Amino acid sequence: xxxxxxxxxxxxxxxxxxRIVEKNGKRLPExxxxxxxxxxxxxxxxxxxxxxxxxxxxxxxxxxxxxIPVQMLFNDPDLNLRAEYSLFDxxxxxxxxxxxxxxxxxxxxxxxxxxxxxSPDVCxxxxxxxxxxxxxxxxxxxxxxxxxxxxxxxxxxxxxxCLSARLHYYRAVSGNLLACMPLELRLRSKSTTQSHRAPxxxxxxxxxxxxxxxxxxxxxxxxxxxxxxxGYDQNSLDQAGGLGFQNGEFEDSPEDSVGIVEEFYNAAxxxxxxxxxxxxxxxxxxAESAITAATSERPGLKEKLNGKVARLPASINSQTRFNQQx
Length: 326
Prior knowledge:
This protein starts with 10 loop residues before the first strand and ends with a helix. The chain is α+β, with helices and mostly antiparallel strands. It has one domain (11-325). The chain has nine helices and twelve strands. Strands 1, 2, 3, 4, 5, 6, 7, 8, 9, 10, 11 and 12 form a twelve-stranded mixed beta sheet that branches. Residues 269-305 are annotated as: Disordered.
């Protein structure tokens, strides 16, 4: 086994809620309000659609793909979803610093070193929004290769928080049979004060449509028993998965990192991201961070009032300042 090379689940394709488009000579993230399932191949127009994209749309009769039937590979939630604060080099695509809010691994002139991780809000290295939460979820789409997976990447707080909570909850209620639960990735939306009533899209993990919790747990127990009879060892798979992730300092390969930076850590992300189109609404996987970044720079009410006071005639201005002090 090559040391320093993370052994990640085999990837058959990608799941995204956005794409990269070229506008005015620049490649920028564009938002979407639906899932897209692609292969790992790219053409002139972007990622090539996977056959499952069309098949699931037909089976579910969804005009817009907003739910995908999935199963987890592992019983351990943290193996299915890995989430860390990550900072990438925009030129090389190489990860520079990866942390969990307590400690981090950082590239330095003396190699990879461990440092305290105070989170991006108070880290000097993370100024300017260069460091973001970065999550990778591997799932098996219903009917695909048992050990093959499709990967969903996100830098959205809402998606990471929601997916993490669901994974831990389903593991608990099923009696550690998370990998056998019939689940569904579902696209949800919400509005916040910062989004100015515009929808923010994030990914949730739910039971299959039409199935109750009791029926889902019964299906998980039945699948688990069939696997045990066939000799399927889920515990050993979880152990092998954990050792594979631990074998490397950083999970993403150099060949993937450049595209990750372009899609999720674009310098124009948030400020120049393409607006919502009437034909396809919201198309950037990092929609949550894009809206937050775009609105955080707007002047507040206090700044606006101070600006108006400064433009008043001197006599009125001095009286106004006196009243403010009182």
